[in-house]
Amino acid sequence: MKNLWISLKITLAMCIVLGVGYVLVLRGVSAVAGPNGGEADVVTLDGQIVGAANVGQSFTDSTHFWGRPSAVNYNGGGSGGSNKATTNPEYLAEVEQRVQDFLAAHPYLSRAEVPAEMVTASGSGLDPDISPRGARVQVRRVAEARGLNPAAVQRIVDSLTQKPWLGLFGTEKVNVLRLNVALEEMCKN
């Protein structure tokens, strides 16, 4: 019986140390070493939160830049890919339809100029970023839809292009939500 009580005490102590202590240590590390003090990186417009910068959103209007397609309809609670092979006929039909839709919205592009990222969903289905090329091919459409000079829209894209960390790790990227918020702010002025 004595061993049972000792085992229960050790189990309870380990549950507290590992269940609570570990979480508190991680929270402390994220507050010191993480971006934004470990808090979510939210994007605001007119003082209102419009979304989290690290979660993709659906933009389909011609006045906005579009992000990558989502296999989960941008549902953060159900993040994931389609799990269809690249040879799956259903997947190929989806991609072909996305290519046709993208070309219809961007008639100045040829099929070869459509970035693959703009017609294929990511593994998470929630990518918040696109490549600078993915943004560049949309500049003309967005500028025309908003009645703006394409050079001004391109300057916004260039100013929001994030370089790889330390110039070595990762690739250049543009956050779609931040880009669309910058456009909204520019059009208000």
Automatic annotation (TrEMBL):
Superkingdom as given in the UniProt entry: Bacteria
Keywords: ATP-binding, Cell membrane, Ion transport, Membrane, Nucleotide-binding, Potassium, Potassium transport, Transmembrane, Transmembrane helix, Transport
Predominant location: membrane
GO terms of molecular function: ATP binding; P-type potassium transmembrane transporter activity
CC annotations in GO: plasma membrane
Location of the protein in the cell: Cell membrane
Membrane topology qualifier: Single-pass membrane protein
InterPro entries, A to Z: KdpC
Binding partners and assembly: The system is composed of three essential subunits: KdpA, KdpB and KdpC.
Known role: Part of the high-affinity ATP-driven potassium transport (or Kdp) system, which catalyzes the hydrolysis of ATP coupled with the electrogenic transport of potassium into the cytoplasm. This subunit acts as a catalytic chaperone that increases the ATP-binding affinity of the ATP-hydrolyzing subunit KdpB by the formation of a transient KdpB/KdpC/ATP ternary complex.
Record family assignment: Belongs to the KdpC family.
Protein's name in the database: Potassium-transporting ATPase KdpC subunit
